[in-house]
């Protein structure tokens, strides 16, 4: 016996085969962001008022650059997942919703890439 | 339209503000604010990668009154979202659903977010020698 409604069956609507992927990715990135964020906040506070040489030297170490890249990747993945849900909840026009989702995804990718490339430039300068 | 006769759920205004619902929407608001705040993070890193002149511009912008106000707001948003996010992860693991606990952890994350914000700024200004 199928649990699907007759209307759902006739329209061909059903599982998008996505399952708990979104929920799980949001939690995993959240978990990764706890230590990364705490580390970054401590680092930024201790860099208060630092000049370019000090910041470049800090970001130029492989460990720091690696952690910064992980922070950027997890941040933008997590941010996109969150913004996606907010758009899906509040934007009811199908056209604006899809446009908003695409724009948010594009912004996340461009910003993440800019951040990661900046870190790599500081590492290899 | 026949759908206009359907029952509506009560409007937001009939609900008394409660710590649970207020913190829930604050989690979402701070999350969106932080998504916007990533612009500053990327700008700061890109400026550092560009060289001393661009980095000095970025520091001047962040150090201006408006820059500091925005950064202070983002600091609170970050710490609140971090603390409340940990609260959410405990819920996901199945802990802390009793009404009293939910209230208590709510006030706790709010206080922790504020305290961490103030501590970070005090330490930051101390690092700069009180500038």
UniProtKB/TrEMBL annotation, chain A:
InterPro entries, A to Z: SQR/QFR_C/D, Succ_DH_anchor, SuccDH_FuR_B_TM-su
Keyword Heme attached: yes
Main location: membrane
GO cellular component, one term: membrane
Membrane-spanning ranges: 28-48, 55-78, 98-124
Cofactor needs: heme
Localization (cell): Membrane
GO BP terms, alphabetized: tricarboxylic acid cycle
Source superkingdom: Bacteria
Membrane protein topology class: Multi-pass membrane protein
Pfam families in UniProt: Sdh_cyt (PF01127)
Metabolic or biological pathway, per its Swiss-Prot or TrEMBL entry: Carbohydrate metabolism; tricarboxylic acid cycle
Keyword tags: Electron transport, Heme, Iron, Membrane, Metal-binding, Transmembrane, Transmembrane helix, Transport, Tricarboxylic acid cycle
Glycoprotein as UniProt keyword: no
GO MF entry, a single one: metal ion binding
Protein task: Membrane-anchoring subunit of succinate dehydrogenase (SDH).
NCBIfam families: succ_dehyd_anc
Subunit comment: Part of an enzyme complex containing four subunits: a flavoprotein, an iron-sulfur protein, plus two membrane-anchoring proteins, SdhC and SdhD.
Protein name in the entry: Succinate dehydrogenase hydrophobic membrane anchor subunit
Species of the source: Pelagibius litoralis
TrEMBL record, chain B:
Gene Ontology CC terms, in alphabetical order: membrane
Predominant localisation class: membrane
Keywords: Heme, Iron, Membrane, Metal-binding, Transmembrane, Transmembrane helix
Location within or outside the cell: Membrane
Cofactor note: The heme is bound between the two transmembrane subunits.
GO biological process, one term: tricarboxylic acid cycle
Transmembrane regions listed in the UniProt entry: 25-46, 58-80, 107-128
MF GO annotations: electron transfer activity; metal ion binding
Binding site for heme: 81
Membrane topology: Multi-pass membrane protein
InterPro entries (UniProt xref): SQR/QFR_C/D (IPR034804), Succ_DH_cyt_bsu_CS (IPR018495), Succ_DH_cytb556 (IPR014314), SuccDH_FuR_B_TM-su (IPR000701)
Cofactor: heme
Family, as annotated: Belongs to the cytochrome b560 family.
Subunit structure: Part of an enzyme complex containing four subunits: a flavoprotein, an iron-sulfur protein, plus two membrane-anchoring proteins, SdhC and SdhD. The complex can form homotrimers.
NCBIfam families per record: succ_dehyd_cytB (TIGR02970)
Protein purpose: Membrane-anchoring subunit of succinate dehydrogenase (SDH).
Protein name, UniProt field: Succinate dehydrogenase cytochrome b556 subunit
Species annotation: Pelagibius litoralis
Lineage of producing organism: Bacteria, Pseudomonadati, Pseudomonadota, Alphaproteobacteria, Rhodospirillales
